[in-house]
Amino acid sequence: MERMPETACLSGMTTSATSIVLGAGYAGLTAAALLANEQHDVIVLESHDTLGGCASFFRKGPYTFDVGATTIAGLREHQPAGRVFKKLGITPHVVRQDPGMLIRTPHADVVRHAEKHAWIEEVQRIFPQGNQAGFWNKLYQLESGVWGLIGGLTHFPPAQMSDYVKLLSPAALKGAPLATGLIRPVDVLMERYGVHRDPAFRDFIDEQLLISTQNTSEKAPYLTGAMGLTYPSDTYYPMGGMYRPALQLMRSATANGARIKFRRSVTSIVRNPSTNTWRVTCASGEVYEATNVISSIPIWNMPSLTEGRVASWYQKKGRRFDNSWCAVTAYFVLEGVPKLPGQYVQLHLDEPIPHVHSKSLFLTISHPDDREKAPAGHSTVTVSTHARSHDWKGLSDEAYREQKQRVHEHIMRIIMRRMPEFAGMVVSVQDAGTPRTWVTYTQRYDGYVGGIPHDVARPLVTLPPNQTPFRGLYHIGDSAFPGQGTPAVMLSAWNTVQRIFDA
Ligand SMILES: Cc1cc2nc3c(=O)[nH]c(=O)nc-3n(C[C@H](O)[C@H](O)[C@H](O)COP(=O)(O)OP(=O)(O)OC[C@H]3O[C@@H](n4cnc5c(N)ncnc54)[C@H](O)[C@@H]3O)c2cc1C
Question: Does the reported pTM lie above 0.90?
Answer without folding.
Answer: yes
